[in-house]
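Supplementary Note 3. Input sequence used for the single-chain structure prediction.
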Amino acid sequence: MAHDSRDAAMRYRLRREALERGEDRPEDDEPDGESAIMTEAQRAAAVNVVIEQAIRRGDFDDLPGAGKPIPGLGASHDPDWWIKRKIERERLTGLGPPALTLRTEYATLAARLDDLHAESGVREHLADFNHRVIEARRQLLGGPPVVTPTVDIDEWVRDWRDRRDAAARRVAAEAESATRRRAGRRFWRRGRA
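The predicted structure, written as discrete structure tokens, is reproduced below.
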């Protein structure tokens, strides 16, 4: 029943559009005895009418990606393109085989450690990383081999301390430089007054 009413509404809209364009169409232009079923040509015309109306209303203006090339066009066919694009767009992490996730985590490990403030947290994070690397090597689920090395916790903690101390010295030097600049400005202001 809903299908019949949609067809009837579309036929009415097509007739009205035809009359507005000045076309002379008979009132009963239905195929032989099929009053509720639209022909394929009528459906195509109805779709075109709806699209033209949406364009006139501006429904397609300012769509995301307008004027930009379609990403991945011309590349080889990858059946998992949609999930890879979703992972990239949403910046999802932790998905995929452990060999790949551990490799990407190892590449950013120093930056992650720099966000930690206590040595105990750094040691705990490194111990957890080593544990996950060892467990990934033991699994026989297939996939790429785990080539990510385990880390020497003491060495990484030492490097973390060095980076933290260097950052603290850099911040102190910048603060001292800013203080000197302010003091110099005050000196020159007093001299002019």
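Helices lie at 2-21, 40-57, 81-90, 98-107, 109-114, 119-138, 153-192. The chain has two domains: 2-57, 92-173.
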